[in-house]
């Protein structure tokens, strides 16, 4: 069953049940809706819920489990063949034939693969018919039960509101469980990594060269894992590029927000703000091309003209372009919070004889400080997590330096590098990506906590 077709059928069935329930409610009230405990619309919503909810659960469960049932059915039909191959080969065979069964063109396949493809198609054809009848029976059965329940005294509004409340709680629970799952996956894989590499050697080591862990294995020149997974150079590179980016974005974004909110005319603001926010919609790969092909060569040629050695993958070029990218985050959010400052504070300051600049510095900026801090923290988090610009414009070598003219790398780039290629998932090199991800998560979490504390402190002062 195609997804779009299933959505269309569900929508039509829901509308039909809604109007049927609404009409039924008016009918039992003898055409006078005021006699009903709940409005007719709530009765229609109740009937739609009772008719569609059981069918929706069955459809979702079938969508998740149908692949496993199909594999089991095909494996049982090919049990004699599967007894001659390994479990890994069985999994690979089922995956390949399943993909072929879903495609229109099969091509040249073996007799055994043809049997598996036919078995898959027969299973999905038969099960599709069965599941459609089951869903139709559930919709009709649930609708009939809801239809019989409709009466003058039925508390349909409470039922619908409880259903919506449960749906909202479930949606919130999905977001929370997703976050918990991400954190747990990072923690468990990081624990496996720290069983191979000491925690303090990773966190405070100054030599990062994961490839060296696999060179010269078994020889006297082989490296110990604890000697090649020191992440200080990566953290230093991330901090350097992020610092450059925020030094570019913070003053430009904040000053543009002040100008747009207090100095610009309405016509200029209506044009300038959307143009400024266009920067947020540009794909990061475009910024990466701009940094690699325009900004970095410009800095290198300018440095050569002054006799200064500038790397073609300098942190300065990367940080500058990243700062341009995050200007809208600072500008737009700061502009919103500055405009949210009550006009009475501006009028009171002007009444005391303060100039507009003094009002901005001593009244508006302090009042809007929680929002401005939040905007800066969001921009910093965005810069720390940026990958594409750094991959294209910065280097891959982990250099421990504070010189912005040299090439450095960041945590996100190394995560991408460690997971590229055909690697063993339980190797120290691959697991190092999870350890870096855990550190990155902790840093962004700490920034968010700091922003919340600042907001709470100053909100109490100015409310």
Shape: flat
Q: Report the end-to-end length measured between terminal Cα atoms.
A: 56 Å
**Helix and strand sequence:** HHHHHHHHHHHHHHHHHH
Largest beta-sheet characterization: none
Beta strand %: under 5%
Oligomer: single chain
Number of domains: 2
CATH superfamily of the largest domain: MetI-like
- Number of alpha- plus pi-helical segments: 18
How does this structure look, described?
The protein has helices spanning 3-28, 40-77, 79-82, 87-102, 111-149, 156-196, 199-204, 225-228, 232-263, 266-281, 284-305, 315-339, 343-351, 356-367, 369-385, 388-393, 411-419, 428-462. It is an all-alpha fold. The longest helix has 41 residues, at 156-196. The two termini are 56 Å apart.
């Amino acid at each position: 069953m195609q997804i779009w077709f299933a959505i269309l059928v569900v929508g039509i069935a829901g509308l039909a049940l809604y109007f049927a329930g609404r009409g039924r409610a008016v009918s039992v009230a003898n055409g006078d809706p005021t006699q009903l405990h709940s409005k007719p619309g709530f009765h229609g919503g109740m009937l739609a819920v009772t008719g569609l909810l059981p069918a929706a659960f069955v459809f979702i469960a079938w969508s998740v489990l149908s692949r496993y049932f199909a594999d089991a059915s095909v494996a049982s039909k090919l049990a004699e063949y599967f007894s001659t191959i390994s479990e890994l080969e069985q999994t690979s065979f089922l995956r390949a034939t399943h993909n072929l069964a879903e495609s229109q063109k099969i091509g040249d396949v073996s007799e055994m693969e043809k049997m598996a493809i036919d078995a898959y198609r027969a299973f999905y054809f038969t099960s599709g018919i069965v599941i459609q009848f089951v869903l139709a029976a559930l919709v009709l059965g649930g609708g009939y039960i809801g239809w019989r329940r409709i009466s003058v005294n039925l508390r349909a509004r409470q039922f619908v509101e409880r259903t919506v409340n449960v749906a909202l709680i479930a949606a919130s629970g999905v977001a929370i469980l997703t976050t918990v799952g991400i954190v747990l996956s990072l923690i468990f894989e990081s624990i496996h990594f720290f069983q191979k590499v000491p925690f303090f050697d990773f966190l405070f080591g100054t030599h990062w060269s994961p490839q060296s862990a696999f060179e010269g294995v078994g020889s006297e020149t082989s490296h110990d894992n604890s000697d090649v997974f020191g992440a200080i150079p990566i953290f230093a590179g991330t901090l350097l590029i992020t610092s450059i980016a925020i030094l570019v974005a913070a003053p430009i974004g904040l000053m543009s927000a002040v100008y747009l909110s207090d100095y610009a005319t309405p016509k200029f603001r209506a044009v300038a703000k959307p143009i400024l926010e266009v920067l947020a919609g540009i794909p990061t790969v475009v910024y990466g091309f701009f940094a690699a092909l325009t900004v970095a060569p410009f800095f290198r040629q300018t440095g050569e003209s002054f006799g200064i050695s500038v790397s073609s993958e300098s942190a300065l070029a990367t940080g500058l372009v990243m700062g341009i990218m995050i200007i809208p985050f600072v500008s737009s959010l700061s502009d919103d919070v500055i405009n949210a400052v009550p006009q009475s504070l501006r009028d009171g300051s002007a009444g005391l004889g303060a100039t507009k600049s003094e009002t901005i510095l001593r009244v508006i900026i302090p009042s809007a400080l929680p929002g401005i801090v939040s905007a800066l923290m969001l921009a910093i988090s965005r810069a720390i997590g940026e990958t594409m610009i750094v991959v294209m414009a910065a280097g891959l070598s982990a250099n421990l330096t504070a010189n912005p003219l040299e090439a450095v790398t960041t945590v996100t780039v190394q995560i991408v590098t460690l997971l590229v290629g055909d690697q063993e998932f339980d190797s120290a090199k691959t697991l190092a990506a999870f350890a870096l991800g855990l550190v990155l998560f902790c840093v962004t979490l700490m920034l968010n906590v700091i922003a919340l504390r600042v907001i709470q402190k100053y909100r109490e002062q100015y409310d």
